[in-house]
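thought: fold this chain, then report.
action: predict
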Amino acid sequence: MSGVAVVTTAHGRHDHLRRQRLSLAAGTLVPDVHVVVAMDDPAVAGVAVEGGPPAEVLAIASPPQGLPLAAARNLGMAHALRSGCDVLIGLDVDCLAGPTMVAGYAATVRDDPATVWSGPVTYLPPPPPGGYDLRTLTARDDPHPARPAPAPGQRHRGAPAELFWSLSYAVGSATWERCGGYCEDYVGYGGEDTDLGRSLLAQGIGLGWTGDARAYHQHHPVSSPPVEHLHDVLRNGRLFRDRWGQWPMRGWLEQFERRGLVRQEGREWVLVEDGTDHEARGERAWR
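observation:
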């Protein structure tokens, strides 16, 4: 069993998905299959066959609470396993693959398949009128300062659970089967990444960072803090607390508290119900 699969979940962001597929096709190693999981978005199927590596599109419905990000990622990884791939790469729909990202992940995972590996991600500025030039991505390399950023050729092991993120990572097939994937009780935004990191470490599966697998996050506007996801953060944060004994995403919760949106009652964070449109009270931060 051998092969490399890239797994991407998508809801909207069609242009980002098109550019991602072009970046995968331009790499020094093209994945054997690109598994795209469409979350309540039938139009994704058309986008995923326009060009790039071989694509297989799956569909998943959303529950009332929000997008099933954890379940969709598990669905895509399970399909990649059935395809016979030994290297599974999770790549967020907003990310462009650097020219050596797939090859770097494949080499790293095959050298050490018992570790879950992440690569540095650079957040790109808004694209120029003609879009991002894939030939000059590496010149823009400026990895996110809150995550490890080993140089090409370097690997760091022993990362804490809180640093795992689903933007870009890779895992061997046997290790993914062993870990059981994401907890699908998480629905909507927030918490599922850190939960998986905790679960991996609890099972004795290490987290590492490789400098040979670099990705580039395409620009889109974001809220800081993510006020439009306030209810998700509270619901998923409470689930995480029940599973692991502490609240995640405390930085966001504290920012919500300063805005009068939530308050802390003992070990609990609760919504301040005042009839206000929470999203309208958020400030837009553009990056």
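thought: worth noting. The chain has two domains: 4-217, 222-285.
final: tokens above.
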